[in-house]
Design brief:
Blueprint: H1 10-19, E1 22-25, E2 34-37, H2 40-47, E3 52-53, H3 56-60, H4 71-74, H5 84-92, H6 98-116, E4 125-126, H7 127-132, H8 134-144, H9 151-162, H10 167-190, H11 196-205, H12 212-242, H13 245-253, H14 258-268, E5 278-280, E6 284-286, E7 289-291, E8 296-299, H15 301-304, H16 339-356, E9 361-362, E10 371-373, E11 378-380, E12 384-386
Parallel strand pairs: 2-8
Antiparallel strand pairs: 1-2, 3-5, 4-12, 5-8, 6-7, 9-12, 10-11
Helix pairs in contact: 6-8, 6-16, 8-12, 9-10, 10-12, 12-14, 12-16
Length: about 400
């Protein structure tokens, strides 16, 4: 789909936030009344408020539903509260620290260069299909220990899971992913390795308070969430730079500035539009609006990151801005576990593209870019680019 306006959803976000940063919505994705948060301070408060529960099973219990999501995707770490959330997150935190991401940089560099080697000079190329999609999924699959031959299926099921598709397509994809992961766990039990999934299996089999259902659920969550955000991050970031050639050229000439520019790129066009489901367990007041108990609350991260009360001139891409307080990765105990890995992938991938293809540009008018945007995620479905060859441009060593 193309953007409805030249500014995507941001004009609508501005109008909603100007009217009231916390609004009652008569019906939403659940079919029930809910509240939409578009202000930065209100969003930050909501993300860190323990009175907003993420226990979807508790919320929907007894309400009835025609959906048939696999339990591994309906009940997972992101859909839980402490102490369950604390216990599950502790098992995988070590694999996604800044230090752990640094150890993966040689692999990320290698995969990036292998993918870029396939680009044909002076011919249109889809950045999403050629790099933004396969890079993060390859990295998370290598981290978990998913065999090469299974990765195209993983990408397809994941895309269906997040697509604005019919519910039965989404539900079917959830069962495909869960069935695959159940079989992979069984295979790894028979032939143990050293990947993250092997370590999670050892935690379960060693009676480290991880049930079989939790093991499959956690593995599926890491597999899907481990690349979806990064794919959208990369697509949004490159598009923003292509639409701001002065900023693009500055980063090309000063690649050491790329790490500090990532927060502004995340703020400017957040890869996750709306945080995952929350509901009030008791009355909560946000931005002067009292929300009764038992109401869904949808936190628009993209809107919060364009709040002028927090970020002056929010619709301007300013690489000199201190945007470290953005909410693209969330806030509080549910802040994105894979943020360090996503930033490492973006730094390496964007740096390689700008270095090897300094004349890269859009192959279509901006308004013709097709967007993959649902309630949760936002990013180009495809991003056609044109680029010159890499003649005269030094290639990095594999471990740069």
């Amino acid at each position: 789909m193309t953007e409805p306006t030249a500014h995507g959803p941001y004009s609508a976000y501005t109008a909603a936030r100007s009217a009231c940063p916390v609004q009652f919505v008569s019906s939403g994705p659940t079919g029930r009344s809910s509240y939409l948060v578009t202000g930065y301070s209100e969003a930050r408060q909501a993300l860190g408020d323990a009175r907003l529960s993420k226990d979807t099973a508790a919320f929907f219990a007894g309400k009835g539903s025609s959906r048939a999501l696999h339990p591994a995707l309906a009940h997972h770490m992101l859909a839980s509260d402490p102490p369950e959330h604390t216990r599950l997150r502790k098992l995988v935190t070590g694999a996604f620290t800044t230090g752990a991401a640094a150890e993966l940089r040689p692999a990320i560099t290698r995969i990036t260069n292998e993918l870029l080697d396939r680009w044909t000079p002076d011919e249109p190329f889809d950045f999403v299909a050629g790099l933004a999609g396969p890079l993060p999924v390859t990295v998370i699959c290598e981290l978990l220990g998913v065999p090469d031959e299974d990765r195209p299926s993983i990408r397809r099921w994941s895309a269906e899971l997040f697509a604005a598709a019919a519910p039965d397509v989404i539900d079917a994809a959830s069962h495909s992913l869960a069935t695959y992961m159940t079989e992979l766990v069984a295979s790894k039990r028979a032939h143990p390795g050293t990947a993250l999934l092997d370590r999670l299996i050892a935690a379960h089999d060693g009676h480290d308070a991880l049930t079989e259902d939790e093991l499959v659920s956690l593995a599926v969550l890491l597999l899907v969430a481990g690349h979806e955000t990064s794919t959208n991050f990369l697509g949004n970031a490159l598009l923003a730079l292509l639409l701001h050639p002065v900023a693009k050229e500055h980063l090309r000439e000063h690649p050491d500035r790329i790490p500090s520019a990532l927060d502004e790129l995340l703020r400017f066009d957040s890869p996750v539009s709306t945080a995952t489901f929350r509901f009030t367990t008791e009355p909560v007041t946000l931005g002067g609006t009292e929300i009764p108990a038992g109401r869904p609350v949808h936190i628009a991260l993209g809107a919060a990151n364009r709040d002028p009360a927090r970020f002056p001139a929010p619709d301007t891409l300013d690489l000199d801005r201190d945007a470290a307080g953005h909410l693209a990765f969330g806030h509080g105990i549910h802040r994105c576990l894979g943020a360090p890995l996503a930033k490492a992938e973006a730094e390496i991938a964007l740096g390689a593209v700008l270095r090897r293809f300094p004349a890269i540009r859009l192959a279509v008018p901006p308004e013709h870019v097709r967007w993959r945007r649902t309630r949760l995620v936002r990013g180009p479905e495809s991003l056609p680019v044109l680029h010159s060859g890499s003649e005269g441009v030094a290639r990095p060593r594999p471990c740069d």
